[in-house]
Specification:
By secondary structure, the chain is α/β, with parallel strands linked by helices. It has 17 helices and 13 strands. It binds uridine-5'-diphosphate (UDP).
């Protein structure tokens, strides 16, 4: 069974790596990796290929940046000839980025089956580009693999046939299981000149938070306030640093000695930073899940989350809106010991990719 696995942006690499590994060790499968090049530089792409032991992609489309429409169109036109040449049995897409939807569309147009890994998640906020990608990809997929059981309710309410839906666990957490024992916490903390539990880790990149001056001013104010009492490490996403720079806010943050405004980190360094911090402030999708798995308190700057299990079962708490006062107050409470206890969600056990491979092997030709 020939599978084309699609990667395009940072959060895809840690989900596809365990799948490609699983497919590659089983002679039933032939596994090809196509990188669309939505993220293409060393810090947002290459480092993950090295660290996650992914092969050099069989095809690199090099689509780069642009409007959603342009990037979608470019991926589709670049991917179609490869699909026709390779004629796979299945195109496997993960998550909710532009590449996910664009490649799924090309596949169904050419009568190739689609598997969507991380299906059924809904924030119910259609202002998020990712929400549209999730809904549309799920509608045209033949195999929908869920990270949390409750996502099935979303899919059934959108009239997706039950036999297509499979609760398998979380491939991103497979990577965490695999690489946690291999990280060198000590080295990373030394590089950052930090001790375990003495700092807060921050990531922010959602357009709703970082695209406006108002949002960025609030984030800057909040970080400057919190940094009066706590060290902060903020690996900054290129989108956020561009916008901060554009609005003239980058300089002040850089001058703050308690805020380490660093480049996006490699996966191994970032999980070392997550595992050892006292609190995570984020708007990332994946980081909400990883902090739940690591049992680290997490405050998420979003009104809704498509990953509700991180709130109902895990350590995540949503901050209804970007209100610096509430965030500062909540941070204080958590660092003073008012910690929400959490548990590891069902099937986040390191075997999601293996369940997906088994399911495909046993049922693909029956569909
Ligand atoms: N991540 C990383 N380095 C960083 C920040 C994040 O390796 O500097 C990892 C993180 O551990 C998670 C993934 O990137 O596995 C999440 O990606 P991102 O936040 O860009 O996307 P989202 O999950 O919000 O779609």
């Amino acid at each position: 069974m020939k599978i084309i696995n699609i990667v395009g942006a940072r959060p895809n690499f840690m989900k596809v790596a365990p799948l490609h590994k699983e497919f590659s060790k089983n002679p039933f499968f032939e596994s090809i990796v196509v990188h669309t090049g939505q993220h293409f530089d060393t810090k947002m792409s290459d480092v993950f290929f090295n660290q996650l032991e992914l092969p050099i992609p069989n095809y690199f489309l090099g689509v780069g940046t642009g409007s959603h429409t342009m990037v979608t169109a470019k991926i589709m036109t670049e991917f179609e000839p490869i699909l026709l040449k390779e004629n796979p049995d299945l195109v496997l897409v993960v998550g909710d980025v532009t590449s996910t939807l664009a490649c799924a569309l090309v596949a169904v147009r050419n009568n190739i089956k689609v598997a969507h890994v991380e299906a059924g998640l809904r924030s119910f906020d259609r202002q998020m580009p990712e929400e549209i990608n999730r809904i549309l990809t799920d509608q045209i997929s033949d195999f929908l693999f869920l990270t949390e059981k409750e996502a099935k309710i979303n899919l059934l309410s959108e009239n997706i046939a039950e036999h297509k839906i499979h609760f398998v666990g979380n491939c991103m957490i497979d990577s965490l299981h695999y690489y946690l024992p291999k990280i060198d916490d000590h080295k990373t903390l030394q590089e950052f000149n930090l001790n375990s539990k003495e700092y807060i880790l921050v990531t922010m990149h959602r357009p709703s938070n970082v695209d406006t001056k108002d949002g960025l001013e609030k984030i800057s104010f909040m970080l400057n306030e919190i940094s009066q009492h706590h060290k902060i490490v903020f690996p900054i996403h290129p989108r956020t640093s561009d916008r901060l720079n554009h609005f003239g806010l980058l300089g002040k943050l850089k001058q703050n000695k308690n805020i380490n405004l660093c480049e996006p980190q490699g996966y191994l360094e970032f999980i070392a930073l997550m595992k050892n911090c006292s609190l995570i402030l984020t708007d990332s999708g994946g980081v909400q899940e990883e902090s739940t798995f690591l049992n680290i308190p997490c405050l998420t700057f979003r009104k809704t989350t498509e990953r509700p299990i991180t709130v109902t079962v895990g350590t995540n708490q949503l901050l209804d809106e970007l209100n610096p006062e509430t965030a500062i107050q909540k941070t204080k409470e958590i660092l003073n010991g008012k910690i929400k206890s959490g548990q590891c969600p069902e099937l986040w056990d390191g075997y999601a990719a293996s369940r997906i491979a088994q399911l495909l092997q046993s049922s693909f030709y029956a569909v």
